[in-house]
Request: fold
Amino acid sequence: MSNADIYHEMIIDYSRNPINFGKIENPDVTYHDSNPLCGDSIDIDMNISDDKVTEIKFHGKGCAICMACSSVLTEIAKGKNISEVKNIGKADVLGELGLENLQAVRIKCALLSLKVLKFALYSHLGKHLKTDDLDKLKEDASSLY
Ligand code: FES
Reply:
């Protein structure tokens, strides 16, 4: 079995049995966004305690790539502190599933949840950050694709 086959199976698996799929009751942070091209949408809920993401779940609907990337992303973010989550980039998500050379048209599928996570963090930290940090975080989230 080639690496491409293994990654393909992982994506199908994650899309059928997504990890961290669901809602958090009364989350500290929640954010929603959608892909305007297909209408698929993702919500991310998080609980944050002592500067750490203690719980994270996502829900919504998306294609196999979107669901797989949301699963992988939430696994990466779980248990991390805020500055580590701020630094999660597209390569971290795409690399986990062998999607580094994804066609431009599918990039939005792969990175929708990362965009939601960045904006969730932005909305959570908005009141406590210095202007420079806020601008950087906003720029990160907006320039994903
Ligand atoms: Fe909608 Fe991929 S087709 S997120």
Summary: The first helix runs from residue 3 to 16.
